[in-house]
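re: ur question from earlier - yeah i can do the single chain one, its not a big deal. heres the input i used so u can compare w yours
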Amino acid sequence: MSNRQTKFVSYTAVYAAVVIAGLTIVNVLADRHNKSIDTTANKRFSLSDQTEKIVKNLKAETKAYYFDRTSRFESARGMLDRYSNLSTNFKVEYVDPDKDPAKARAMGARSYGTLILDGGAKREEAKAISEQEITGALVRMQQAGDQTVCAFEGHGEKSFDAADTSGMSTAKTALERNNYKTQTVKIVEKADIPPACSILLIAGPKRAYNDEVIAAVKAFVEKGGDAMFLLSPALKGRSEEVDDDPKLNALLESWNITVQNNLLFDASGVSVIAADEYSQHPIVRDMRGLPAILPLARALDVKTGAEKLITSSGDAMGTKTLDITKLQSSAPSKDFSGPFTVAAATTVGGTNAGDIKKQGRVVVAGSSEWLAAAMFGRYGNRDLFLNMINWLSADEDLISIRPKEPEDRRLTVKPSQGWILYATSFLPTLLVLGGGILVWLKRR
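and the output i got, formated as tokens:
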């Protein structure tokens, strides 16, 4: 070691070994603990709370088979890697059907770009490489049987099939995307509730139900069925006539939820309540900071045995005046002061508090307009509705904030603003070129 050249070679070898060992350790740790930071405004590259909850709670290994040409694997790898990074029980395998046609045929892959999830006992296909479709497929794998949401029609209720902004077409799409079936139940004098119905949806009836309909709903819930009641105030006026329904109100009161016939408005006098005061109930406990927007709402009184879900702010006001003509001609009278309960939940029947199969679950909201297509996608309305449905069907594990719809963030430039295009296209290049010229001149 006294030789200078020997020392130099030895030190170099040690340094190289240390650097190689360090790089190896860093790469192994990076491979096992893949972390990223999403700095986009709408968190485009982050998975939702619901997705994280479902993937992290996978009890058995779920394998995702992606069938496509080898050159296209990278287009799906970014999304699928986010799922596999959440749990060791989520495995991904990329298969080129041209190279392995036997596996593609065995898994039922019929086209390029197919993603099939295999949980062992059940398989589901995602229709696209998107969070909505992949998470939806995972949800379908976890659900034991079909759940059918039946919407009443015949008394002026909101319709699943209405294509206008006042209908529930977007709510229907959201239900079907989350593996719920939908059905319309037409009732006139007699309520014939099909056996397939697991959840009743009564959204904004304008005409009062008779004794036969009330008796059918009561029997359905008390035998273990689930129901959601969305009841707007009984407004009167030139273009709006909504009957108060004392028989339905009495039924809900027997289940410890009293519906008040009033109209709520915010501090500025607008009849839209933005409520974000949530309880600790499973339906709403994950919705902090995401308000529900409830137009034309009425207040509820909740007695022992039921539980509040959403409460308005203390600035909200209530009025007994339900004549639209009077409300449009003058400011509403402030007959009540907030806060008001605007949504509640309860259970009915059952042999004991833990027997969810024999208990009927009931959700009541003092507004039906928030479920209309024009309002459904605003703020927390979509998540609130799907959370209610998940709780009614005893799927509490699925309650969370859903994957966000892709956001269109295109910049529209008017003809008079053409300078923006030139500035963003050429200015950075000119600045770099100018800087280079200045450095060259200075060095000369």
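The radius of gyration is 29 Å. not sure if urs matches, ping me
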